[in-house]
C-alpha cells in the first residue's frame, strides 16, 4: 500500500448557496478547472465511478466516467474524466423524470458493479417522501436499466450502502425523508419518525431484503457504512450521526448479521445552542486501505478522530484534531459539562485565515499518510449551523497522518479556499481521486485488492 502513487488531482462537487440557485449552477472542480452543470438547483453531493476495483481483470472496463448524483433535483450527471482528467466534460445525464419512473428520487451513493453496471442508492419517492431503493444504470449507454432491489424489498429509508459478493450481502443505511432534511434539521422531525435508525441487509444474489437491524436510540441516523477492505472479512463499521456512535456490524455464526456499539462520542451539555445537549454529529467515516485505522468527523463538535482498529471490537483512539466547529472558545456556545475535554477548543487558523465551519467530508490518500478534509455538509444544514460557510465558502484542507503510532496534524501549507471563486463563494463537498480511493473501491477477492495496490 505504501507504494501507491501520490494523488496529483482531486475532483470536488461545488454547491452554490441557496439564495443564488436561480442564477448559478453547481459545478465540478479540479481546483484548476470548473465544469458548470447545465441546470440550476441540483445540490451535487457524493460522486462515484463507472468502474472500480470490482471490475479488476476486465480490460474493457475503464475508470473514465465520474457519476454525479444531485440530491435536490434527482438528476444524475455523467462526466467524462478520461479524455482530459484535468478538464472534465459533461458526457450525458439522467433526468429526474427517468428516476421518478423507477419510483425513486434523491440519489445518493454510487458504486460500480463487477458486471460493469452502476448502482445508485436513493432516499425518496417522486414526491420526496422517505423510501429506500436502488437504480441500476448500464455502464456503456448510461441509461437506467431498472431497479436493483426485489419489487417487494424497498425500505422505509435510504442513504449509503456497501456490497460484498464474497459474503452474498449488501447492507444499506438510512438518513431521512428528503422533504425533511432538505429544509434543514428539525428535532421534531425525529420525533415524527422522519429519520432512520436501522441497517437493511439484502441477499446479494436474489436482491431480497432479508434482515432489518434496528439500532434504536443509540443508532439514530446511520449514515456512512464501510466494510473492511479485505473481502474475506465479514464485518465493518457504520457512523450514526445524531447519536454520535460507531457501530461494528458483523456476520454471526448462524448466518444472520448483527451490530454492536464500539465507539461512543459523548454529547456536551451546553448553553446558547438549539438544544441543551450537543451531539458530535458523526457525518463521515472511512477505513484505511490496510484496515488498520478508522477515521471520522464530528461536524458539530469540530474534530476529526483516528482509531486503531487492529482489534475491531475495541477501537483505540490514537489521533484527534479540532478544526473549527461549534465548541470554539470564542463562540456563543458555552459548555457546562464535558466528560472528555477540560476546556473548549481554540478556533483554528491556516495561512492567517480562520477556518470556516467544521470538518465534514474526509478522504484518505492511498498510502494512508494524507487526509483531505472539506467543511460543508448539505446546503440547508450549512446555512442553519454554519452560516459563515454560505457567506465565505468552504475550504479544502490536508491533514498529515502518523501511520506508525497514530496522530493527526494540520498541513499549514495546504489550503484551497472556495470563498474566492470567480462567481462567488461555494460549498465544496466530497473528494475523489482519478485512481480510486478508500471509500469508492470494493474488492471482490483478496488477490484483486492486492494487485490493484
UniProtKB/TrEMBL annotation:
Gene3D superfamilies to which the protein is assigned, alphabetical: YVTN repeat-like/Quinoprotein amine dehydrogenase (2.130.10.10)
Coiled-coil annotated spans: none
Pathway connected to this protein: Organosulfur degradation
Record field: catalytic activity: methanethiol + O2 + H2O = hydrogen sulfide + formaldehyde + H2O2 + H(+)
Keyword vocabulary terms for this entry: Selenium
Keyword DNA damage: no
Recorded superkingdom: Eukaryota
InterPro entries for this protein: Se-bd, WD40/YVTN_repeat-like_dom_sf
Keyword Lyase: no
EC annotation from Swiss-Prot or TrEMBL: 1.8.3.4
PANTHER family: METHANETHIOL OXIDASE
Family of this protein: Belongs to the selenium-binding protein family.
Annotated protein name in UniProt: Methanethiol oxidase
Source organism per UniProt: Tegillarca granosa (Malaysian cockle)
Lineage of producing organism: Eukaryota, Metazoa, Spiralia, Lophotrochozoa, Mollusca
Amino acid at each position: 500500500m505504501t507504494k501507491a502513487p501520490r494523488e496529483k488531482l482531486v475532483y470536488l462537487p461545488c454547491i452554490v448557496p441557496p439564495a443564488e440557485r436561480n442564477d448559478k449552477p453547481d459545478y465540478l472542480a479540479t481546483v484548476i478547472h470548473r465544469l458548470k452543470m447545465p441546470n440550476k438547483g441540483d445540490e451535487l453531493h457524493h460522486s462515484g465511478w463507472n468502474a472500480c476495483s470490482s471490475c479488476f481483470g476486465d480490460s474493457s472496463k475503464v475508470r473514465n466516467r465520474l457519476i454525479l448524483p444531485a440530491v435536490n433535483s434527482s438528476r444524475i450527471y455523467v462526466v467524462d474524466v478520461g479524455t482530459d482528467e484535468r478538464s472534465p466534460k459533461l458526457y450525458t445525464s439522467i433526468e429526474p423524470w427517468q428516476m421518478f419512473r423507477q419510483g425513486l428520487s434523491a440519489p445518493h451513493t454510487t458504486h460500480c458493479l463487477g458486471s460493469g453496471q452502476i448502482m445508485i442508492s436513493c432516499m425518496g419517492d417522486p414526491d420526496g417522501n422517505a423510501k429506500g431503493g436502488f437504480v441500476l444504470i448500464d455502464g456503456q449507454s448510461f441509461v437506467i436499466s431498472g431497479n436493483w432491489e426485489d419489487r417487494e424489498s424497498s425500505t422505509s429509508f435510504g442513504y449509503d450502502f456497501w456490497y460484498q459478493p464474497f459474503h452474498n450481502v449488501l447492507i444499506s443505511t438510512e438518513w431521512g425523508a428528503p422533504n425533511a432534511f432538505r429544509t434543514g434539521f428539525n428535532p421534531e422531525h425525529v420525533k415524527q419518525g422522519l429519520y432512520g435508525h436501522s441497517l437493511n441487509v439484502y441477499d446479494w444474489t436474489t436482491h431480497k431484503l432479508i434482515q432489518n437491524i434496528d439500532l434504536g436510540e443509540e443508532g439514530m441516523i446511520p449514515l456512512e457504512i464501510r466494510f473492511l477492505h479485505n473481502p474475506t472479512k465479514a464485518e465493518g463499521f457504520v457512523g450514526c450521526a445524531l447519536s454520535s456512535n460507531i457501530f461494528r456490524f458483523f456476520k454471526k455464526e448462524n448466518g444472520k448479521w448483527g451490530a454492536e456499539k464500539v465507539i461512543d462520542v459523548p454529547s456536551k451539555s451546553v448553553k446558547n445552542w438549539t438544544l441543551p445537549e450537543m451531539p458530535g454529529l458523526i457525518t463521515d467515516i472511512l477505513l484505511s486501505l490496510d484496515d488498520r485505522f478508522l477515521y471520522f468527523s464530528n461536524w458539530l463538535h469540530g474534530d476529526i478522530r483516528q482509531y486503531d482498529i487492529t482489534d475491531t471490537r475495541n477501537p483505540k483512539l490514537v489521533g484527534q484534531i479540532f478544526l473549527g466547529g461549534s465548541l470554539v472558545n470564542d463562540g456563543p456556545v458555552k459548555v457546562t459539562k464535558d466528560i472528555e475535554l477540560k476546556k473548549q477548543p481554540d478556533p483554528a487558523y491556516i495561512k492567517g485565515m480562520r477556518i470556516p465551519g467544521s470538518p465534514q467530508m474526509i478522504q484518505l490518500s492511498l498510502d494512508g499518510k494524507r487526509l483531505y478534509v472539506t467543511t460543508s455538509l448539505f446546503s440547508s444544514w450549512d446555512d442553519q449551523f454554519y452560516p459563515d460557510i454560505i457567506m465565505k465558502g468552504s475550504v479544502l484542507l490536508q491533514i498529515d497522518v502518523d501511520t506508525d503510532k497514530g496522530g493527526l496534524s494540520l498541513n499549514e501549507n495546504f489550503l484551497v479556499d472556495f470563498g474566492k471563486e470567480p462567481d462567488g463563494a461555494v460549498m465544496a463537498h466530497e473528494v475523489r481521486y482519478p485512481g480510486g480511493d478508500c471509500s469508492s473501491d470494493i474488492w471482490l477477492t483478496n488477490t484483486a485488492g492486492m494487485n490493484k495496490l
